[in-house]
Amino acid sequence: MEKYMCFIQPGNKLTLSVAVPLLHLLCLFAPFCFSWDALGIAFGLYILTGLGITVSYHRNLSHKSFKVPKWLEYFLAYWGVQALQALQREEQTNVADLENQAFYKFIQKTYIIHHIMLGAFLFSIGGFPYIVWCMGVRIVYLGHITFLVNSVCHMWGHQAWNTGDLSRNNWFVALLAFGEGWHNNHHAFEHSARHGLEWWQLDTSWCTIWTLQKLGLAKNVKLPSDAQKRKMTFRNIDNSKLSSDGFPQLPLK
């Protein structure tokens, strides 16, 4: 069962119902407010907040695929907050370990304020164009990329593992979503810190975790074992067609 950390209080739903359409409206001004510096800062924030979602929210907090020091956990989670992707879920709630921590309690109570503060800072250094590109375009683009994972990756792509569901590996979504597009891999090995299991499957979230591991900051990094890989292969695949690490050498259909 996945964890769902909800940072949005019920009273903030109205605020979000206004904020989300407003952010989409801001995107309409993008062609008229273009500047290379605004685009550059928006791209930098896209990387930070995107990894905040994939590395922190998803692989660290939800699946506990690895552990980092608390200061780094909070730093990564804070950038996930700035993606504005927290949702109210009816089925949540195996997150007592997070909800009992002062940091997450504080974020939950002051969620929208953090976005207002970032927006105010961006406006102070770059005016309206920075609001359009760094808040509007960046948040909307990242949100739709995230939604692609749970839509496109259940419709189009390749199934490498016998997961018994509709999950697919989609290289295009993986490229845009920091490696989350290797969705069939993830469904097969949900606690794996690495989603791009083949050498050619680009997974920038895993690259980040791997770097943290080499720096001694990420520990208890979980990866699928050979036994787990063999268990998840399609039963009609001959063992002679499997590489030594358990991956099929030929595409599976």
From TrEMBL:
Pathway entry = Lipid metabolism
The keyword Transmembrane is assigned to this record = yes
- Family, as annotated: Belongs to the fatty acid desaturase type 1 family.
Q: Which GO terms describe its biological process?
A: very long-chain fatty acid biosynthetic process
The molecular function terms of the Gene Ontology recorded here are: oxidoreductase activity, acting on paired donors, with oxidation of a pair of donors resulting in the reduction of molecular oxygen to two molecules of water
What GO cellular component is one of the record's annotations? endoplasmic reticulum membrane
TM helices/strands, residue ranges = 39-57, 111-133
Q: What is its main location?
A: membrane
Q: How does it sit in the membrane?
A: Multi-pass membrane protein
In Swiss-Prot or TrEMBL terms, this protein is called Fatty acid desaturase domain-containing protein
Protein's cellular compartments: Membrane
Question: Which UniProt keyword terms apply here?
Answer: Fatty acid biosynthesis, Fatty acid metabolism, Lipid biosynthesis, Lipid metabolism, Membrane, Oxidoreductase, Transmembrane, Transmembrane helix
